[in-house]
Amino acid sequence: MPLNMPTELQLSLPPWMRPWLRAHSRRRFADVAARMEVAVELATHNVARRTGGPFGAAVFDRRDGRLIAAGVNLVVAARGAHWHAEVVALALAQRRLRTHDLAAAGDYELVTSVEPCLMCLGATLASGVRSLVCGARGADAEAIGFDEGPKPTHWSAELRRRGLAVQRDVKRPAARRVLRDYAAAGGPIYLAQRGA
Amino acid sequence: MPLNMPTELQLSLPPWMRPWLRAHSRRRFADVAARMEVAVELATHNVARRTGGPFGAAVFDRRDGRLIAAGVNLVVAARGAHWHAEVVALALAQRRLRTHDLAAAGDYELVTSVEPCLMCLGATLASGVRSLVCGARGADAEAIGFDEGPKPTHWSAELRRRGLAVQRDVKRPAARRVLRDYAAAGGPIYLAQRGA
Question: Is the Cβ pair B102, A7 closer than 8 Å?
């Protein structure tokens, strides 16, 4: 009798990301503006290539500005509600550095084109990154219909209280533009159909 | 030049879970007490087999009581801070049902041996389960040193407001016992070393 219950999970980044990563792997991203351009570019490509939602994220080494790992939203493509760009980037960084705790490996920063939702806030805290940099606001994502979840009112203060540096509104107009263009083009706003 | 950046993620359940799943795949779990016994048993096995932390979770079909998918905490083993038992169970259920939105597929329930942390609250909301059943309290996990994160004070009310049924304290003493036994045996309390 075959076992009908799955025992394995797999995730592959979209094919366009492989050459993109190769082109970015030797570069140095010296400041948060340069790093946010990477996250926004990932979100832009993800929409243009129709591989997912308008969200991009990346993990950088703050000591030398190297790109460690990159993620895009793959919820629909990978059939997994947890595959937000931030979780994808953090998971790949943890795989690359061979640890569940990035703080034990060095000084790493998560840069995300849109502020983390409730789940990604928790994933950020658990990941061991020491710094979080955000582009568009959660309200910008909610303005086109996405649900950020019941985040703590003072979530950035809560993160800082736990030792994370937090910067918001870095290149917010560019990051917000990706959201608006996605909505204007009729991109799917996938939400769990709770109580429907 | 080989690409040093990872582009794939994989997760395998511990080998002991395959026969365990086979033994449970044809059974029916009629009520929340029977389902919680499954989650607590998963947590117990995960500690005894030394495959991870003292947390177990499972997704059930509320229409017929079938077990759809099961998860245990694999943070350290799989080197991924996001592989909490709830995320593993939800991800496997979404894979089995071929959708990111379990609400679109039917009436599913997440049963977890310990209340969800901040990240898992978000993952639960995003998953499309219509019901959440919890054993031990978040405070029970924090009592042995785990960090639940800055959860909304009235998180169960927030979930109910979004259409999820929530039951707490189902077989709490049995679920709490797994936590206490784990701590007493010196099991690792993995936390991101933020600000260390």
Answer: no
Residue B125, Cβ neighbours under 10 Å: how many? 26
CATH for the stretch A44-182: 3.40.140.10
Element (H, E) at A109: strand A108-114
Which one-letter DSSP state was computed for residue B35?
A: H
Task: For chain B, say whether A145 makes contact (Cβ under 8 Å).
Answer: no
Q: pLDDT tens digits for B27-56? A: 999 999 999 999 999 999 999 999 999 999
Tell me the H-state helices in chain B: 17-24, 32-48, 85-97, 102-105, 118-127, 138-143, 155-161, 172-184
How confident is the prediction for chain A on average, in pLDDT? 94
Q: What pTM value is reported for the model?
A: 0.96
Instruction: Using CB atoms, pick whichever of A70, A125, A194 lies closest to residue B164.
Output: A194
Q: Are B120 and B87 in contact (CB under 8 A)?
A: yes
Indicate if the pLDDT at residue B171 is higher than 50.
yes
- pLDDT tens per residue across span A51-97: 999 999 999 999 999 999 999 999 999 999 999 999 999 999 999 99
Asked if A131 contacts A102 with a C-beta cutoff of 8 angstroms, the reply is no
CATH architecture under which domain B39-184 falls: 3-Layer(aba) Sandwich (3.40)
**Three-point CA angle B17, A95, A103, nearest 5°:** 110
Ordered by start, the domain boundaries in chain A are 44-182
Q: Residues 6 or more apart from A145 whose CB is under 8 A from it?
A: A183, A189, A191
SS3 B134: strand
Task: Taking each helix axis as running N to C, give the angle between helix A118-127 and helix A85-97, from 0 to 180 degrees, rounded to the nearest 10.
Answer: 20
Which amino acid, residue B142? E
Which strand ranges, in their side-by-side order, compose the sheet holding B67-72? B67-72, B56-61, B108-114, B131-136, B165-167
CA–CA separation, B91 and B87 (whole Å): 6
A92 to chain B, any CB pair closer than 8 A? The answer is yes
Q: Does A63 touch chain B (CB under 8 A)?
A: no
pLDDT in tens, A6-29: 999 999 999 999 999 999 999 999
Q: What is the separation of C-alpha B83 from the centre of its chain, rounded to a whole number of angstroms?
A: 9
Question: Residue B142 and residue B136: Cα distance in Å, rounded?
Answer: 11
Tell me which residue of A146, A163, A175, A160 sits closest to A39, measured CA to CA: A175
Q: Which residues of B touch A67 (CB under 8 A)?
A: 5
